[in-house]
Design goal:
83 residues, alpha+beta
Amino acid sequence: MRVYTTFYMVPQKKAGHISDFANRGITDVKSFMHQVVQSTPVNTGQRIGKNGRIQKWAEYIVDNEKYLLAYGDNGFIVSFYPI
């Protein structure tokens, strides 16, 4: 899977996810995300979103912790967060 990384989130979601990462000891989320996408996901899939578009995702496990990465058809990352 080839992904292009940009780091943008809706401000209220970003604040919640940043604290989720901090609770796991991760302070540099962007660097961590770059490290994670170099590994092989344990699961991938897609679903139809509320807007009718296909949403693709990949699940990763790092140090026994799960992370979800959602990405678009164009390869750009849409979201990345702990699950």
